[in-house]
Design a protein that fits this description.
Layout: E1 22-25, E2 30-33, E3 36-37, H1 38-44, H2 47-56, H3 62-74, H4 80-87, H5 95-109, H6 119-144, H7 158-167, H8 177-189, H9 197-206, H10 212-223, H11 231-244, H12 249-257, H13 278-293, H14 299-312, H15 315-319, H16 327-337, H17 344-364
Helix pairs in contact: 2-8, 2-17, 3-6, 4-5, 5-6, 5-10, 6-7, 6-17, 8-13, 8-16, 8-17, 9-10, 9-17, 10-17, 11-14, 11-16, 13-16
Bound molecules: s-citryldethia Coenzyme A (SDX).
Pfam families: Citrate_synt
InterPro entries: Citrate_synth-like_lrg_a-sub, Citrate_synth-like_sm_a-sub, Citrate_synthase, Citrate_synthase_AS, Citrate_synthase_bac-typ, Citrate_synthase_sf, Citrate_synthase_typ-I
Protein name: Citrate synthase
């Protein structure tokens, strides 16, 4: 402590905002969106309905949902110049870098939302982001693969048309229903998660009254880190490395436990959950459903299950309360559907978009909000006088 500032390296238990959107009990492994348990939403709701819930605070009536869905579907097309913007990036650029730039640029193509102020413009900006991000993510994948960017066909439905735009020619045009519902569920599971690194970033940037698009773009950048959203990509790399070195899970676990190796079990551990991440349990069962519906077996899924089993029975992980988090199994499903690992974190961003928007809007309408200004504990030298260079 120096002066009025106390340094808390745990940081995780320092509340720096109040919010009524998502509740997490990390010790018990509980997650609720606007009071609804994630397990019930995953079973009965969908990504778009949950996006409405996160933003409005209530589940929509049939009429409300149909009006919302129709409005979103009407905006899934993107401007021709916008395709040229995506195509202007090197195909080797990481998709998260392209997506972050594209989201920042959106207001330039839709001047009616350049200044996101007032309920109507906020609502339009919300709809534009929700509607266009799937198309942007799909186009970025097509661009990196040197493929044309197909027009949106919203009559196919929100998630099905995203998968068609992204994966057509990889998958047969008719995406199996089980794949569509699994993708919808995965997006829903990522929709919000309280004040995680990327959401806190969106709030910080927005607290300076940066507009919604630029605030969300900052969140996309934060999410790209391998300790955060980038973990789903890192899990696949980790599993492939284990498989390619004779698939010995115990050797890998011993390397993780050897602190000098600085190797982490990616997809395990969490700043808040000191119990099984409830989303991971749902994703794990969805993996079985998707692979079953595609008639696929997956050696990496078997390896992941073995790795989880070994870790959950090893004191090193049990004592540190390290359990699978949402990223441990998601990449295996994305890969089975046909996405390359470089697209796993963009899919996380697609899921998280409604949460970033809802949290930004909640903050902007909270009269107690002030510009983010964290303090520090000063650890540098005490005051001293300047010494002329000739005398140093
Ligand atoms: C997400 O916050 C959110 O809500 C995020 C998220 C969301 O929906 O937005 O849930 C999404 O980001 C999930 C997390 C994805 N990241 C990973 O899977 C990367 C691997 N996990 C970690 O690096 C780590 O667990 C963190 C970053 C997630 C959490 O780090 P903490 O809480 O700061 O953990 P820590 O560094 O305090 O670790 C405590 C101990 C340490 O050992 P000791 O120093 O006590 O001996 O546990 C060890 C750590 O070395 N440890 C791990 C480990 N995670 C922590 N050891 C091996 N493998 C790991 N994964």
């Amino acid at each position: 402590t120096t002066g009025d500032v106390t340094y808390d390296p745990g940081f995780g238990n320092t509340a720096n905002c109040q919010s009524g959107i998502t509740f997490i009990d990390g010790a018990e492994g509980i997650l609720r969106y606007r009071g609804y348990p994630i397990e019930e939403l995953a079973q009965h709701s969908g990504y778009l309905e949950t996006s409405y819930l996160l933003g409005k605070g209530e589940l929509p009536s049939t009429e409300q949902f149909e009006a919302f869905e129709t409005r979103v579907l009407r905006h899934t097309h993107v401007h021709e110049d916008f395709r040229r913007l995506i195509a202007s990036f090197p195909r080797s650029a990481h998709p998260m870098a392209i997506i972050s730039s594209a989201v920042s640029a959106l207001p330039g193509f839709y001047p009616e939302v350049f200044e996101v102020a007032g309920e109507d413009v906020e609502e339009l900006a919300t709809v534009l982001l929700l509607a266009k991000l799937p198309t942007i993510v799909a186009y970025v994948l097509r661009h990196t693969r040197g493929q044309r960017m197909p027009d949106a066909e919203p009559e196919n439905g929100f998630v099905r048309d995203f998968l068609r735009m992204a994966l057509h020619e990889v998958r047969d045009p008719e995406v199996p229903d089980e794949v569509v519902s699994a993708m919808d569920k995965l997006l829903l599971l990522h929709a919000d998660h309280e004040q995680n690194c990327s959401t806190a970033t969106v709030r910080n940037v927005g607290s300076a009254h940066a507009n919604l698009f630029l605030s969300v773009a900052a969140g996309i950048n934060a999410l790209s880190g391998p300790l955060h959203g980038g973990a789903n990509e890192a899990v696949l790399t980790m599993l492939e490395e284990i498989r390619d070195t004779h698939g010995d899970v115990n050797t890998f676990v011993n390397k993780v436990k050897d602190k000098s190796s600085d190797v982490r079990l990616m997809g395990f551990g969490h700043r808040v959950y000191k119990n099984y991440d409830p989303r991971a349990a749902i994703v794990k069962s969805a993996a079985d459903e998707v692979l079953g519906s595609l008639g696929m077996s997956d050696d990496l899924l078997d390896l992941a299950r073995e790795l989880e089993d070994v870790a959950l029975n090893d004191d090193y992980f049990v004592q540190r309360k390290l359990y699978p988090n949402v990223d441990f199994y998601t990449g295996l499903i994305y890969r089975a559907i046909g996405f390359p690992t470089s697209m796993f974190t963009p899919l996380f961003a697609l899921g998280r978009m409604p949460g970033w928007i809802a949290q930004w809007r909640e903050m902007m309408h909270d009269p107690s909000t002030r510009i983010a200004r964290p303090r520090q504990v000063y650890t540098g030298p005490a005051m001293r006088g300047y010494v002329p260079m000739a005398e140093r």
